[in-house]
Design goal:
Blueprint (H helix, E strand, L loop, with lengths): L36 H12 L3 E6 L4 H4 L4 E3 L1 H9 L6 E5 L2 H10 L5 E3 L15 H13 L6 E6 L4 H9 L3 E3 L4 H9 L7 E5 L2 H11 L7 E4 L10 H6 L2 E4 L11 H10 L4 E4 L5 H4 L4 E2 L2 H10 L5 E5 L2 H10 L4 E4 L15 H12 L11 H15 L10
Parallel strand pairs: 1-2, 1-3, 3-4, 5-6, 5-7, 7-9, 8-9, 10-11, 10-12, 12-13
The structure holds 1,3-dihydroxyacetonephosphate (13P) and iron/sulfur cluster.
Amino acid sequence: MTTVDLPLLPLGRGTDPNSERGVDCPGSLPAASDPDLVERARAAKETLGSKLFVLGHHYQRDEVIQFADVTGDSFKLAREAAARPEAEHIVFCGVHFMAESADILTAEHQQVILPDLAAGCSMADMARLEQVEDAWDALADAGIADQVVPVTYMNSSADIKAFCGRNGGAVCTSSNAQVALEWAYAQHGPETKVLFLPDQHLGRNTAVLQLGLALGDCVVWNPHLPNGGLTAQQLRDAKMILWKGHCSVHGRFSPDVVDELRETHPGINILVHPECRHEVVTRSDLVGSTEFIIKTIEAAEPGSSWAIGTELNLVQRLADAHPDKHIAFLDRTVCYCSTMNRIDLPHFVWALENLVAGNVVNQITVDPETAKWALVALQRMLDLPARTAAKD
Ligand code: 13P
Ligand code: SF4
């Protein structure tokens, strides 16, 4: 593995801060020290054969991702889940909102399994349905609800997606936020406004850097303040109403580190995910989803230097896979997504061996009414023309 002489986290294997166990598993969870875990996973997967389909998000641990039939960003995984009607069991190595979307997009006879139910997402938890309904009421009181299209990032619970489906809106991911917003702004003519949930950074970065809105066109709705902390006039003047949510992993990357790197390493390329703060994204060379980040590094010149602002499992994997390129992590400290890391080999083996024994554990199901409307919003996203989000 190549490391760059950067004042950043060297790409050795950092300490995993997430080794504690989350939710109780019925039956016994294999010990992490069991030397046969890899063999057990392989054997269970082989026994289940084509009945099993394993999806792995790019932020998953190496020990788990090696067993994925398909790896991808949240958009690709949603499409893949929808395209496998023959698989009875879909084991989703990712987080809860992804497994919910997979359940919505798959057929009745398919079961979606999340190996550890504690694999949630702090960003998704930042927008609860009652809070969003209160915000919608405030938009109605300001006389603008008819002009507002709600767009939710994939990283949200199924009931928020259903809210968007019921109210003429759509889902987006970091791969298609630009086209989703272009679609949204075309819904009610020039007076259209968007309520973007729950990641203010993806919403702001896309609106300003890709759609050409001014920063002043955006306001932030804080669900913990009366009327979101905004006046009715501020809501009427805004074109983009951003929910005050963020990713705790991507929120750590700082503009100071980018500035320091530019000074100490002229020629370095800064590549970040659009969940990063606006002041980080505007200082970077390229921005895009995890899938975009991977493709960019694959296409990069040997010998080129990169500092990458996204989850550490992925950055480490890219550094391992590209020893001819200098790849570093854009932060000084270890920064895994603690909930993505919940899916470890013991939980994976436990879920698969239970399936072999005929027990479906940790099945994720969305109630039919929520699923019906969430599917409307997801389908609007899947119907959008393909285009990859990237700033260059
Ligand atoms: P993408 O999978 O859309 O790149 O998003 C990253 C992420 O934060 C997933 O939780
Ligand atoms: Fe949620 Fe951020 Fe983790 Fe993605 S990286 S699952 S947005 S906390």
